[in-house]
Amino acid sequence: MARGNIYTRRVKVFTLAIIMYLDYKALQKREKWVSKSKRDAMWEKLHERNAKRVLKVIIELEGMWVKLGQYMSTRADVLPNAYIRVLTQLQDSLPPRPLKVVCETIEKELGKPMRDMFHNFVQVPLATASIAQVHRATLSDGREVVVKVQHEGIKSIILEDLKNAKSIVDWIAWAEPQYDFNPVIDEWCKEAPKELDFNREAENTSLISRNLGCNNQRDEKVPANSVDVLIPEVIQSTERVLILEYMDGVRLNDLVSLENLGVDKQKLVEEITRAYAHQIYVGGIFNGDPHPGNFLVSKEPPHRPILLDFGLTKLLTSSMKQGLAKMFLASVEGDHVALLSALAEMGFRFRMDLPEEAMEVTALIFRNSAPSREEDEHLKSYKEKAKLKKESLKLNQKESRRFNPVDAFPGDIVIFSRVLNLLRGLSSIMKVRINYVDIMRPFAESVLQCNIDNGPRSNAQWIYNTPVHSDVEAKLRHLLVELGNADKILGIQVCAYKDGQVIIDTAAGALGRYDPRPVQPDTLFNVFSATKGITAGMVHWLVDNRKLKLDENVADVWPEFRSNGKDGIKVHHVLNHTSGMHNALADLTREDPLLLCNWDECLNCIAKAVPEGSPGQQQLYHYLSFGWLCGGIVEHASGRKFQEILEEAFVRPLGIEGELYVGIPPGLESRLATLTVDKDDLSKLTGITSRNDLPSSFQPGDILQMLNTLPATFNTLNVRRAILPAANGHCSARALARYYAALADGGVIPPPHSTSSKPLLGSHPHIPKFIVKKTDKKSEGRKKKGAYEALSTSDKSKQVTSFEHSINLDGGDESRRSINSVPIVDSSRSSNNNNLTTTGSSEVDNHEYGSKIFNDEAIHDAFLGAGQYENLIFPNGSFGLGFKRIKSKDGSIIGFGHSGMGGSTGFCDMKNRFAVSVTVNKMSFGSVTANIIKFICSELDLPVPVEYSGSGGPNLSASLEKPIIN
């Protein structure tokens, strides 16, 4: 070994690093002056030159640098081809050590002469690696073995190499802050010395072999998640000598021999990947060094992989194993909330103002393998996205260079990521494509199986421990347990008011399929189209405050809306789903669903859309466009932002701060329930044909496709944070029930929610910051002419000021957008509008128990399109003005409300002063919700709404013909 002294090794390493750094920096400066064709040739020549430099120094120094070179040679997915071509030579044997030295080590370690231990010892080694060399031998008892012997003096060299590597990484991080590899090298410094103890390797080999169930004969009965690989049996070990069973095989990267044997390379690499998935997720201990030199392929059919060298292994704690499983599954499902939870459990800290970065990073880790050219394109795309993200943050040069979305990186993840990268490199070398999701998902799910199946049978705390308010609530909890045991419920909340008092407030189940934390009373559920009932209420609130009229032309309120023949569309047409805009935004969602997150873009599309018919002629459910039609009306009629009106009209007066949002602010991630789909219900949808009351873009086939993709889309934080006033309400059942309890009494605010409910309703204040910003004269004049004149007379003397909405995010950045604000209607507020929200449920302005959020005595008629409002709705239609009309079996109207796709719902029976809401995260077609509503109404001797009155809840065909779930 070219040991030299420690100083010489250090000089060689640092000299190489500096030369390569200067070489690359010089070309970066020169390339801008040459053509693209010459530029590519220059880079290729530079890569070749530096790869040879690296190879030369690695061969001279050996030790840990050989392992690093072997690792680099497998990264065909990320490194230039020149490096792969040159460094692949390191996968062949290095120069052997003298046989005399090898035999002396064996005799010293085992305490016996060679002749007493071996019948035959082959002098030429099978392989020479960075730490040891391997000889074939025959024991005195006739067993064929291999003997692994550690190089003399290698321990001190390895430790010195790690110090040098650490110094180089520190220097690179200082010179180029975006390339900070300290977490990686720190983990290597901790784990690599463990390879020097062969007793540890022997234990690891035996343990992993047992975990994988390795044997030479394939069992007839194959258990679930089993793997078909071989691992040599351990015969004997000391700290520096390891004797293993000999297994005859072909090297994995000997593609010619594999071809001659007829080996299925795809199946081979898939089985190796399965073996690693088993090691990581089932056994919790895995080989951290899966480079091609550590695999053989048995020569006899079925040509099984042989796994070698378990020196560098990683033992995972139970919590880390579960965290890795949750991270993988959440990434696959597109579940930002569960992903951030898993990353936090493992010690990651991501900047919360960049939630999509967490998903991007994990998607990069778990991406499928591909040929090197495709990998180059994929990584180039990822880097381009990162560049655009940095540009959007408007960082200065120093901040940009040091920008990193990860604030903390756990050491355990380093070896895990390295394994996935090596496996991906292996796939590139073997020229096969591996779908890591399909292979690894069953193993990851097995880790969480106890949590996935953590229903009422196995979890005594499945019903969250809150007081029981009534006999009917006690009985309801038994029903929920039955439904949970039938796997119909994942997480759920049910809240009901009768005569203004809370009679049910129950939470049960888990936050998500891969998030076993319990649902609590303040958990926030996405309620999809139940949001429409809230949005419609905001339009009515503006009408009630004389800022808008139901028979007013939308274009008179919203001038940009006038284009393309929409002059005749009135506010009541929008609320009654008769505007002819039922398919508006359908093309936008097909083009790119994430465009729905752009509020201004959606309003612009609605304003430019062409109606498909004359207003008032046909009632077709405006499944998506309803929200932005109403949202545009709200903002243009008030001159204020949508969320401000929501806060002032309902959130603060009802004391439901922190539990009702349309578009969540940062900081609520831990309280979000995550969506999944009831696959049993989903499978039944294929038998349903079409419905004539739904738009052409929202037929059962479209719904089926949506339900397959909605969870992955709506679980992401960037979608949750967007304002989608048709489909993105996030609330607790108790907040939604309180809203409908107030509406049931004509807008009278109910008594405070039960103080026995913990945490208290309204105890999660959301306090946005409003910064004064100069108003341009044009917008000032427009507001004075429009919304300002519609305000209450007591505030007309106050100056209209424009503000900038700024949410203070983790990491110190602020996400700003201009808002046009008008004074608060409540004259008791300060004229300085820098604080537009209160700080808790105790501060509700003048909106106390018994006061009203609506003044119109005929407000119920307005909601239902009855009485004086009857001429504003489509005759015999399902909808009133913004709300679904609730009927009893005899056809009489008993109330109003709105449901959402997936099962969440809220409605009130105004005649019986009854309001109820159900929030769920396991999306179905309403059978669970129907059972619950039917049960509660029956227990209270109330009329059961016809939508819920079928035997055991509506069957699927009926629910799609006359939906309770919109």
Automatic annotation (TrEMBL):
Coiled coil regions, renumbered to chain: none
Compositional bias (Low complexity): 827-842
ABC1 atypical kinase-like domain span: 89-339
GO cellular component terms given for this protein: endoplasmic reticulum; Golgi apparatus
Transmembrane portions of the chain: none
Keyword Membrane tagged: no
Beta-lactamase-related domain: residues covered: 478-754
Domain of life: Eukaryota
Disordered: annotated span: 754-795, 807-842
Annotated keywords: Ubiquinone
InterPro entries: ABC1_dom (IPR004147), Beta-lactam-related (IPR001466), Beta-lactam/transpept-like (IPR012338), Kinase-like_dom_sf (IPR011009), Mito_struct-func_regulator (IPR051130)
Name of this chain's protein: Ubiquinone biosynthesis protein coq-8
Species whose genome carries this gene: Heracleum sosnowskyi
Lineage: Eukaryota, Viridiplantae, Streptophyta, Embryophyta, Tracheophyta
